[in-house]
Amino acid sequence: MPRQFAWAAWPDEQLLQLRLKDLKVTVAGTWLEGCLEHLYEELAQRGLRVRPHAWISDEWFSPDTTPGIAIPFYLAHPRLMRLERKKIIDVEGGTVPECMRILRHEAGHVVQHAFQLHRRRRWQELFGRSSIRYPDFYRPNPASKNYVQHLRLWYAQSHPDEDFAETFAVWLRPRSDWRKRYADWPALKKLVYVDELMAEIAGEKPILTQRLRVDPISQIDRTLSEHYEKKQAYYVSDSPTIYDRDLKRIFSESSARHRRAPTAAAFLRKHQSHIRRSVAQWTGEYQLTLDSILDAMIARCRELKLRAAGPERQLVMDFTVLLTAKTVHSLYSPSRREWFAL
Predict the structure, then answer these.
(1) At what angle do helices 312-332 and 287-304 cross, to 10 degrees?
(2) Domain range for residue 290?
(3) Are residues 49 and 125 in the same domain?
(4) How far apart are alpha carbons 223 and 225 in whole angstroms?
(5) Most buried of 45, 241, 243, 283 (most Cβ within 10 A)?
(6) Residue 2: phi, psi to the nearest 5?
(7) b/e per residue, 37-76, with b = 16+ CB within 10 A?
(8) Same domain (yes/no): 174, 313
(9) Residues 98-152 pLDDT 10s
(10) Could you give the CA distance from residue 86 to residue 80 in angstroms, rounded to a whole number?
């Protein structure tokens, strides 16, 4: 029977004052156990003698000091997942398929460090040097075919270790058909190398075996409120504030002719969730980031007193195209706030 927690019935305001360490959540007894078992089966089917241990922390990560995976606390209880969704909109890893996608990625880090693969010359030739300092930010090239695409925002491009972890995840996923999917991509040579390398180390005992728990939730003193203030600041990037020309192309300025049309601000509020989800799906951008941009655009529509005159479906389509174009353009812009490593 799942463990009962008094805080599960608390309102958000009260729950946010609780320290992370006082949540007392664990992997045991949750749906995460099933995901880990699936991961172990996939690794075993490939002959890899690693079973990453897992613990609860404040985010996803796999340290280089132990063959294990830290899982964010909100996945350990439905009440915490609801709070995460309210605060961040996305619940990263909140479904079985998405959780497995991230676990395969983290398992790539585990395998790399457990077998010290980054010390091999060929590994370095294909992926780069693991010793390169992680950047605070990175600028991906969405058109590049030198990297596989697994996690959002072209994460393989952020660091050699992430490139390997993403390549490993694509290789590990059952029925991924990676040879056909990446047939014409330079990234295929990395996948072929991983396939050959995993066959070579199959059955071998890992070098790194000591089971440690790095930054476990039991040692995190921050309150949930402090945690989300920091997390929201990370996702909400500085975005362009000059939208007037684009907004006026789609919406109409107030006049006697359009006085019966709804305000553009009200129109966008009505369709905000649908537009946000669509653009997030097409671009890979985080929904919370898009939400902050939408809020700024809605505020500007209100200041300009714009009206949503015209067919509703066409206006939604036009605005969605606009936001998608702005989002894609921002990935290349020199002023773009790039992304912290996972």
Answers:
(1) 120
(2) 238-332
(3) yes
(4) 5
(5) 283
(6) -60, 145
(7) ebbeebbeebebebbbebbbbbebbbbbebbbbbbbbbbb
(8) no
(9) 999 999 999 999 999 999 999 999 999 999 999 999 887 777 787 789 999 999 8
(10) 10
